[in-house]
């Protein structure tokens, strides 16, 4: 059986690499003659084996299949060549990990084609969203399809890259690429475009309309390195890759996929492959298996112990779990964390926060608040939260999340109701999609956008104040501490209260959404066919 080899650069941050791990498993289960070299920077490669084994146990419970798939996924640590120095303008920026790993990828690609290898030459290269490379250089070494790995959803891809008529950023990004030749000037232009102040309405498919300025609804000024990231991203999509892999599916975002197929497949002849949500679901339901609990570290087990105690003391659905992910926090308004903790403690509602979330915005009084909440038995923290186990615990009422795609997908897998606290990028689109409309499966916080919300009013409030399903008044947001506290009390304390009608309804809708996801994974479904088409294009056989 002729082996097919895919080189898959999973990205420089865990939020991109984790779904790449999961997708690699999916691909190798589908095709028995496929080998994947999963390329990761050394810091991620060092920790990738444990989650890989965990995902394998869920996706391939048959021992023989699991062993076979594991043998065909090679985790490869890539490092920049000796003597490399990161450009000074990126050395202290958010872009550095992506620049360093991009240089490492290009060096790896050259090396494996120049030196003897155990594996055959790659038949395909998959690159992360923020990969800096030259198409001609890659193709001159080995002229294989280059696919773009988009670990977010379809609607946000439309906002970034779709043509005129959607109100997104695509036409402006493309114009900048076509008209600005100086890289420094191009990166400055791309950075400004990424953080728009325009009130133009974006209609991206399945999400409700949003103003362009809501793309960075609570992020403050553009961060150093953002221009590099946008240049690499947009040039890859429009100029370099031969197709796109997107971690969603038509069962969830059909209109967005229709827009993308019309542009990229019909006009540009670049296929769009739907990888579906990159999460696992236990067949027994949204509960965390006891055998996996035993594998958690002592601090992680301490979090589960806190939830167990809360279940006894306060009952089911009593705990809220707050996480802003690894890259976001209310940096410009750190007092918002104080208001959150004060609200929870005053109302004796237990909660879980990660220490990474806390450390991101350390401000005077915050550590003391956490300590007092912990002493009162109302708060648990750890350096690493076992998120899947927390989301599936019976004590959990709702997940207070920034709304990144990975976290949203994990909540869907656990059927956990969400309270969105979005900051930027895909988060406002995801939050609006799932919290607005006649049958929301989540809540969205608006006062968290801070004082600038008075100037940049959310489209949701275009006709004035709202009324919640429970009959409560929802004022036009002002972003003040007083308004934020009132919103926290309405959403966190009353509407998401244990046993409340609103929480019950959202839970039921999340259970139904989880089942739709499970159904979408069946053999012969649209996502399954999309993956098969991608693999057979390079000669992979499909498992029968």
From TrEMBL:
Alphabetized UniProt keyword annotations: Glycosyltransferase, Transferase
Domain of life according to the entry: Eukaryota
InterPro entries per UniProt: UDP-glycosyltransf_plant (IPR050481), UDP_glucos_trans (IPR002213), UDP_glycos_trans_CS (IPR035595)
Any one GO MF annotation of this record: UDP-glucosyltransferase activity
Family per record: Belongs to the UDP-glycosyltransferase family.
Official protein name in the record: Uncharacterized protein
Organism: Tilletia indica
């Amino acid at each position: 059986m002729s082996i097919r080899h895919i080189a898959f650069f999973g990205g420089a941050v865990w939020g991109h690499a984790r779904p790449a791990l999961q997708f690699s498993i999916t691909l190798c289960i589908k095709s028995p003659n496929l080998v994947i070299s999963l390329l990761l920077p050394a810091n991620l490669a060092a920790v990738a084996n444990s989650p890989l084994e965990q995902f394998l146990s869920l996706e391939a419970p048959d021992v023989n299949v699991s062993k076979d798939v594991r043998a065909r996924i090679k985790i490869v640590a890539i490092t920049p060549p000796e003597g490399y120095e990161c450009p000074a303008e990126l050395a202290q920026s958010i872009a550095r990990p992506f620049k360093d790993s991009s240089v490492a990828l290009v060096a790896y690609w050259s090396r494996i084609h120049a030196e003897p290898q155990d594996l055959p030459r790659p038949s395909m290269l998959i690159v992360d969203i923020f990969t800096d490379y030259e198409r001609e250089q890659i193709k001159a070494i080995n002229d294989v399809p280059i696919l773009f790995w988009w670990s977010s959803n379809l609607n946000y891809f439309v906002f970034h890259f779709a043509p005129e008529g959607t109100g997104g950023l695509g036409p402006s990004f493309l114009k900048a690429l076509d008209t600005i030749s100086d890289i420094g000037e191009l990166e400055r232009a791309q950075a400004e475009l990424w953080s728009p102040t325009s009130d133009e309405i974006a209609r991206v498919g399945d999400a409700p309309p949003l103003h362009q300025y809501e793309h960075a609804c609570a992020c403050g000024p553009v961060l150093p390195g953002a221009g590099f990231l946008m240049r690499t991203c947009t040039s890859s999509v429009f100029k370099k890759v031969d197709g796109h892999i997107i971690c969603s599916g038509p069962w969830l975002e059909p209109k967005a996929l229709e827009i993308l197929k019309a542009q990229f497949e019909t006009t540009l002849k670049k296929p769009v492959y739907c990888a579906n949500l990159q999460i696992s679901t236990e067949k027994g339901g949204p509960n965390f298996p006891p055998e996996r609990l035993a594998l958690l570290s002592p601090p992680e087990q301490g979090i589960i112990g806190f939830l167990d105690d809360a279940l006894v003391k306060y009952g089911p659905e009593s705990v809220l779990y707050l996480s802003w992910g690894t890259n976001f926090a209310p940096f410009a308004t750190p007092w918002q964390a104080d208001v959150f903790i004060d609200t929870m403690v005053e109302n004796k509602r237990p909660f879980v926060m990660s220490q990474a979330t806390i450390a991101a915005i350390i401000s005077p009084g915050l550590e003391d608040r956490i300590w007092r909440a912990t002493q009162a038995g109302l708060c648990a923290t750890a350096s690493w939260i076992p998120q899947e186990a927390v989301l599936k615990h019976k004590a959990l009422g709702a997940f207070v999340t920034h709304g990144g795609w990975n976290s949203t997908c994990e909540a869907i897998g656990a059927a956990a109701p969400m309270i969105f606290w979005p900051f930027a990028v895909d988060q406002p689109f995801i939050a609006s999609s799932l919290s607005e409309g006649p049958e929301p499966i989540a809540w969205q916080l608006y006062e968290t956008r801070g004082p600038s919300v008075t100037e940049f009013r959310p489209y949701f409030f275009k006709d004035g104040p709202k009324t919640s399903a429970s009959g409560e008044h929802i004022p036009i947001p002002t972003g003040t501490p007083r308004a934020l506290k009132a919103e926290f009390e309405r959403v966190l304390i009353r509407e998401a209260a244990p046993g409340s009608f609103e929480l019950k309804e959202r839970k039921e809708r999340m259970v139904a959404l989880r089942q739709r996801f499970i159904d979408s994974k069946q053999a012969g479904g649209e996502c399954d066919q999309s993956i098969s088409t991608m693999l057979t294009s390079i000669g992979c056989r499909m498992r029968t």
